Amino acid sequence: MVSRDTLLKGHNVLQTRELDEARAAVAERYCDHQLTMLSGRDAKVVYNHVRGEHISLNVLEYGAEVAINPGELQNFYLLQLPLSGGAKIIHRGEEVHASPQSGTLLNPDRPTDMIWQRDCRKLMVQIDRAFLKQVAYEEIGGTLPGPVRFDPKVDLKGQSGRRLLALSVTAARAIEAGDILSTSQDLNLLALERQLAVTMLETQRSNISHLLKERTDVSSTHLRRAVEFIRANYYDTITLEDIAQAAQVHHRTLQTAFREQLQMSPMLFLRNVRLDNARFHLLQRHNRASVSEIAYDCGYSHLGRFSRDFRDRFGHAPSQTR
């Protein structure tokens, strides 16, 4: 078994004491960034990297206390799993003290500032933004209401965090051992990449977690048409007859299908879709619309009813959404 101390050792791309050389090598595989030494006279950078089709695995240490400012990552998410040492991460306005007990997950459209301690060494999973979006779309079974945004702190002591860490380490070990080839022709690699993306979505809290928990297995053609119609038109005034017409079936037959497969009526499903989308927009931390604007945009014409329904579904008022 490959130990964590030697993860991806066979895929070393850089060993240097020159910080500028390290910045250039990392920037080539990630994005441009500022890298500044905060203490010490010499760095001792070791960088291992392997790239798949949609994901890359990386082990990186600087051997010095450094400040890293990448701004917005833009095209990828970055899961950082400290194997030793610690770091301070500021992302989405939140400060996370990373350690082997606490990792971070950086979103592509929010700025980041980091300070890595001298003994900080991380396993990092870089996942393409477009790939994660596609996997999320497939898992939900419908159009995403906007970009996926994760909470930045990953609890590596809890069951979900341990599961994500274990899979990431297993992936690195499998590639190091040659069990999986880092080529797009390897179906095992493609399956592993998807498994990493799905696990990230399932284990780490995000603004679509509530949608993932309520994935539906819609086997009926009529029911599938109805669900697609509701998800595409939830913001409009919709009646049961509208849904039945879109599904090309009598409304009583449609009600029976919803009860049998989804354990709810078509109108309750519509209400839940409206509320889920409202919560998605309420979770935005920048340029968020008012509660009343979001309610109206999601198909509610009565703010009091929206607040009541929202509390019934999520256990708190819309204004308390964080």
From TrEMBL:
GO molecular function: DNA-binding transcription factor activity; sequence-specific DNA binding
Keyword annotations of the record: DNA-binding, Transcription, Transcription regulation
Key word DNA-binding present: yes
Residue ranges of every copy of the HTH araC/xylS-type domain listed in the record: 224-322
SMART domains on file: HTH_ARAC
Source organism: Cohaesibacter gelatinilyticus
Classification via PANTHER family: HTH-TYPE DNA-BINDING TRANSCRIPTIONAL ACTIVATOR EUTR (PTHR46796:SF12), HTH-TYPE TRANSCRIPTIONAL ACTIVATOR RHAS-RELATED (PTHR46796)
Record keyword Ribosomal protein present: no
Pfam families: AraC_binding_2, HTH_18
SUPFAM superfamilies with a match to the protein in the record: Homeodomain-like
Descriptive protein name: Transcriptional regulator, AraC family
